[in-house]
């Protein structure tokens, strides 16, 4: 009888674990599906922010496969060239900027700039680039107030990841669209409405 009770308890724990995992995957699917519907309604870019310390990249890509596949743009620190080769099927049709031992960049939706360079920023504006990646928070904020860009300051685990935008389109009217510090390797999805940026373009 005791063995039967132990066996039933073990079975219930297993079923509970499977159901919990299934519900988690389903909720993530709903979130991804909702982002896809928003894209149909307005010009929205979905950005996948990878918070990584550079360790166990395989687990990260497997666990957040849905999020990465649904994104238009992928941004991260600590992603290397070998990682891109391994997950080329996921990244093939996406714009991305990865800051590791070397900068890896692809696509037309995002550009990297190391500092406040007016000439390059005006060139990006003329090309219709909506997202700039930069390594300094104050510079990111300044660029977003002078040019029609979302600026992303990517962070790894235990570091802040920040997105700046023109003040009128930020909820708290402070120029900061998003800010998050995470404590494990994970992926965050952010939807950016690029259609509103046209209201902040500089005269030609």
Describe, in short, the structure shown.
The protein is of the alpha/beta class. It has 7 helices and 10 strands. It has helices at 2-41, 57-63, 65-70, 81-86, 88-91, 118-127, 137-146; strands at 44-51, 73-77, 95-99, 103-106, 110-112, 131-133, 150-153, 160-164, 176-181, 186-193.
**Counting H and I runs of at least 4 residues, what is the number of helices?**
7
Q: What letter string, H or E per element, gives the SSE order?
A: HEHHEHHEEEHEHEEEE
Indicate the CATH architecture of the largest domain.
Answer: 4-Layer Sandwich
Look at the structure and name the CATH superfamily of the largest domain.
Carbon-nitrogen hydrolase
Total beta-strand segments: 10
Mean pLDDT: 85
Q: Largest beta sheet, briefly?
A: 5 strands, mixed
Q: Helix amount, in percent?
A: 40-55%
Beta-strand content: 25-35%
Overall form: globular
Query: Spans of 5+ residues with little confidence (pLDDT < 50)?
Result: 21-26
Question: What is the structural class?
Answer: alpha/beta
Biggest sheet strand order reads 4-3-2-1-10
Rounded Rg: 20 Å
**What is the CATH class name of the largest domain?**
Alpha Beta
CATH topology of the largest domain: Nitrilase/N-carbamoyl-D-aminoacid amidohydrolase
Number of domains: 2
Compute the separation of the termini in Å: 83 Å
3D structure, described in words:
- With 204 residues, the chain is α/β, with parallel strands linked by helices.
- It folds into two domains: 1-41; 43-200, Carbon-nitrogen hydrolase (Nitrilase/N-carbamoyl-D-aminoacid amidohydrolase, 4-Layer Sandwich), CATH 3.60.110.10.
- The protein is built from seven helices and ten strands.
- Strands 4-3-2-1-10 form a five-stranded mixed beta sheet. Strands 5-6-7-8-9 form a five-stranded mixed beta sheet.
- The protein is globular.
- Residues 21-26 have low confidence and may be disordered.
């Amino acid at each position: 009888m005791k063995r039967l009770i132990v066996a039933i308890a073990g079975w219930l724990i297993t079923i509970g674990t499977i159901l919990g995992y299934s519900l988690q995957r389903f909720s993530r699917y709903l979130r991804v599906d909702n982002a896809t519907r928003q894209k149909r309604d307005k010009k929205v870019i979905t950005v996948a922010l990878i918070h990584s310390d550079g360790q166990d990249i395989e687990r990260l890509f497997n666990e957040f496969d849905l999020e990465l596949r649904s994104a238009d743009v992928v941004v991260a620190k600590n992603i290397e060239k070998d990682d891109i080769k391994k997950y080329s099927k996921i990244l093939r049709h996406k714009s991305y900027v990865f800051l590791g031992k070397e900068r890896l960049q692809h696509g037309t939706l995002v550009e990297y700039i190391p500092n406040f360079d007016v000439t390059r920023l005006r060139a990006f504006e003329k090309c219709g680039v909506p997202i700039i990646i930069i390594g300094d928070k104050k510079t990111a904020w300044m660029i977003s107030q002078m040019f029609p860009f979302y600026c992303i300051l990517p962070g790894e685990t235990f570091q802040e990841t920040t997105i700046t935008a023109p003040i009128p389109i930020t909820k708290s009217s402070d120029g900061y669209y998003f800010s998050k510090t995470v404590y494990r390797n994970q992926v965050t999805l952010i939807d950016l409405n690029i259609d509103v940026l046209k209201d902040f373009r500089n005269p030609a």
